[in-house]
Amino acid sequence: QVQLVESGGGLVQAGGSLRLSCAASGTVFSPNTMAWYRQAPGKQREFVASVRSTTGTIYADSVKGRFTVSRDNAKNTVYLQMNSLEAEDTAVYYCYFRTGVTTYWGQGTQVTVSS
Fold this sequence. Notes:
This protein has 115 residues and is an all-beta fold. The chain has strands spanning 2-7, 10-13, 18-26, 33-39, 46-52, 57-59, 67-72, 77-82, 91-99, 102-105, 109-114. β9 (91-99) and β10 form a beta hairpin.
């Protein structure tokens, strides 16, 4: 089992920045992928960004150039640096962990961007 704990959400003005963190604990096997998804009110959950324990990041087109995903393998922690935030980025952000075919989700952290 893997437990994911997110932190760093909050309220920010448009154009501002926030940094999300997600720490994985428990039986953390490698290689693995950690990622961020988000779900806005009335919309489906969507992919934001991912990073593998070895190498490689992927971003949704909507956040390229504004968001940066990174990880600290020693701490089993993934980060999402969000810059130039827009009202459309308002959502609950979920941490995601996958190793092999097993996946886990965090509880989510609210990000609200005021325009």
